Amino acid sequence: MKIALVMEWSTCEKNEIVFNTLKKVAEANGHTVVNYGQFNAEDHRQTYNQNAVLIAAILNSGAADFVITGCGTGEGAMMACNAMPGVCCGLVVDPADSYLYTQVNGGNCMSLPYAKGWGWGAEVNLEYVFEKLFVKEFGGGYPAHAAASEQRNAALLNKLKAAASRDFTEILKSEDGDIQEMIREAFAGGRLEQFKKDCKCDKILAAVEQALA
Questions:
Q1: pTM higher than 0.90, yes or no?
Q2: Which residues 6+ apart lie within 8 Å of 177 measured at CB?
Q3: pLDDT tens digit string along 151-165?
């Protein structure tokens, strides 16, 4: 599995520790990690809104299989991600959340709080959260007797989201000035170059480049 880390400006000073912790745990389980930043807040300020656009591009294009994101509380990032097509994001605070989210909901994106509750021992909790992410294959269900029902509900949720959502490339064609600005900001700071390396969908890559032209 390929995992992308996408953080915002307000917590970018924690990017290195989050990336290194995630990389350590992921690689020990045979997965790879790519870091999309944000690395610093000097040149631009990407929030969870811009990140949601980038995350939708990453997941819908196959650039990564799973995304770790977040914000100060994790709530805004979760809400913004879930507003996008093809993104099913859960809020994760502790290791039990991580395990239950992957087993019961089987989504493709996880939002973490990087300010609220980030105190003594936060890096320990973070490592345990990532460890529980890889314990079992996603969507196995918990408890076992409820697995079939949970798997059906997760599949139905994906169908409902697909039916309720626009195609991602249509969002990239928006003529709304605020949306256009968010798209430009979403791929700033070297993110476009990284996305080009990872993207597996020519249609989405072309739509992104057209939106940025």
A1: yes
A2: none
A3: 999 999 999 999 999
